[in-house]
Structure formats: C-alpha cells, structure tokens
Write a structure and sequence with these properties.
Blueprint lengths: L10 H7 L6 H11 L11 H16 L7 H10 L4 H10 L11 E6 L2 H5 L2 H10 L13 E6 L11 E3 L2 E4 L3 H12 L7 E2 L31
Parallel strand pairs: 1-2, 4-5
Antiparallel strand pairs: 1-3, 3-4
Helix pairs in contact: 2-3, 3-4, 4-5
Length: 222
Amino acid sequence: MADRHTAPDTPELRERWGNFAFSSEYEAKAKKAIARYPEGRSKSAVMPLLDLAQRQVGEETDTQGWLPLPVIEYVANYLDMPVIRVLEVATFYFMYNLVPVGKYHVQVCGTTPCMLRGSDDIIAACKKRGMKKGHVSDDGLWTLTEVECMGNCATAPMVQINDDNYEDLTVERLDAVLDALAKGEQPKTGTQEPGRHTSEPSGGPTTLKEMVTDNHDYRGEW
C-alpha cells in the first residue's frame, strides 16, 4: 500500500519549496473553491486547495504532483488553519501524494474483484517495465502504487493513471496504454474491451433486452 509518511523535512526541501505560493491561475481557482462555502467556513476548502497545490507542484516538476511539507504549511496559512489539521487531511486521503512521484502515477487496484481478474499480472507487467512500488522509475516517468477498491469492480482489473481510469485490462492492453503515455500520447480511457462502452455486460445485455432500442413497457408481461 502507499506510504502515508511525508518526505523528510530537509534544508534542501525548504530551499526548493519554502517560497511556494499559488500562481495567479491557481489563486483564482483557490478563491473559487473557497467561495463555495459560507462566510467564515473557508477551512472547509482544505481538500480542494490541497489538490490545487499538488497540481501546481506537478506542473512545476512535470510530474503527477505531490505535497512537500512547506506546501502543506502554505495551504494551512492560506486558510488560517493549524498545520497539523491540514497534515491530518493530507495523510488520510490517498489522493494526495506525500513523496515525489513520476510523470505518471500508476495506481493498480489489488482488491478481491481485480485480484480475481488478474491484477497480480498487471502489477507484474508494471514491475517488468522497471516500476517499483513507492518509487520513481529511473526515467522519471512512472510511480507504481497498489491501492484498494476504486469502484470499477464490474470492469476489473483496472488501474488509475493520474486522473484517468483504464479498465478491463490484460497485460497486452496495459502495455499499449503505457506505451502510448510514454510517447506523450493520450490513450483511450475507460474500458479497453472492444465494443464495450461502460460497465454493461460484455457481449450485450442478458435481460430486459427490449429496452436497448425502445422504452419497452414490461408491465403487461408481469
């Protein structure tokens, strides 16, 4: 599972991130997020602001983004919150990366439905490409994390890479996705099963078939 410890608070970390501040673009997004909450409740925006900070760090480092401790402190100061309260949020939710990650954060679901459908093979395929859990690959492209259920059990096995899900994977399909990303291309997201659109039964529906093309009224048949 993903390590929930923050990166060491070193002088080098302070030198690099000690002067972090939202850019004008992210400042506008932060103010918009805060405006969603009642006056005096700006602390409720801590989660979206942490996400914005992580994304800005990602843009500055050409990675998926992470939260150095000085950046967490900046968000705390921005919202007039104790740093420990913001740190509690950042360490609890897996959407926040607490250590550097690669350009692409490959999160493989290893929960039972995905495991039964071959997630071990998916993890092995990632490792074959030089990925190690919790580490940035030598080329800076990849970080591998095994996570718990991400709610795509009907299209298992699946991975989340940055903001996108890739489902109905085989080793060959995963390799095609990763090859495309490595080339700077955007592969098809969602299910990788040909002819499948979302999580409908593979091969088409097995019940209520008349509903596919028409709003069929079954009440007379009942």
